[in-house]
Amino acid sequence: MLKKVRKKKKRSHKRAKRTNTPYQWEKFRKVRNKCNTAVENAKTDYYKTLSDKIMNEPVNSKNWSKMVKSLFGRQHKEIPLLKVNDEIIDDREKMANIFNVYFSDQSNIDESNVHLPDIEKFTSELSTIEITEKDVEDILLRRKLLDLIA
């Protein structure tokens, strides 16, 4: 459907450019508007179908993750520039130091009258540890889920 509409739009545009008559330009604008509406409707239908699949159909974690990524799109990994005192900072290490200074200055703790309690030294030894195959599987499964989310 979209392919036909886009092809019609392209032909109509060529014809309008070639003839350069008001009638052909008006005809092109109508076809263009229909094409844009069809594209928007197709996008809406696509996202609605995809979100319905995510919400209602049972899918494995790999397919679910793939669908969510296609729904939300890829996120930019690029760190935006930072402006400090009318100076643009693009070096990651400088940015980290600026944020470190800023956030460490947000709290000042008065340690002048602080006395730490005496805590007896505690030592313990782990004499035995039992790990079952099920424990390892559970940990690996949780790790896999965390990787999919991140």
Which descriptors would you attach to this protein?
150 residues; elongated; mainly alpha
Overview of the structural elements:
With 150 residues, the chain is mostly helical. The protein has a domain at 2-57. 63% of the residues lie in helices and 4% in strands. The protein has 5 helices and 2 strands. The protein has helices at 2-19, 22-56, 61-72, 92-104, 133-149, and strands at 82-84, 87-89. It has a two-stranded antiparallel ribbon with strand order 1-2. Helix 2 (22-56) runs antiparallel to helix 3 (61-72). It is elongated.
Write the layout of secondary structure elements.
Elements: H1 2-19, H2 22-56, H3 61-72, E1 82-84, E2 87-89, H4 92-104, H5 133-149
Antiparallel strand pairs: 1-2
Helix pairs in contact: 1-2, 2-3
Biased composition (Basic residues): 1-18
Region (Disordered): 1-21
Q: Which stretches are poorly predicted, pLDDT < 50 over at least 5 residues?
A: none
The biggest sheet amounts to: 2 strands, antiparallel
The separation of the N and C termini measures 37 Å
Q: Tell me the helix content.
A: 55-70%
Tell the overall outline. elongated
Strand content: under 5%
Structural class: mainly alpha
Order of helices and strands: HHHEEHH
Query: Mind telling me the C-alpha Rg?
Result: 30 Å
By oligomeric state, this entry counts as single chain
Number of helices: 5
Q: How is the largest sheet built, in terms of strand order?
A: 1-2
- Overall pLDDT: 84
Count of β-strands: 2
Region (Disordered): 1-21
Biased composition (Basic residues): 1-18
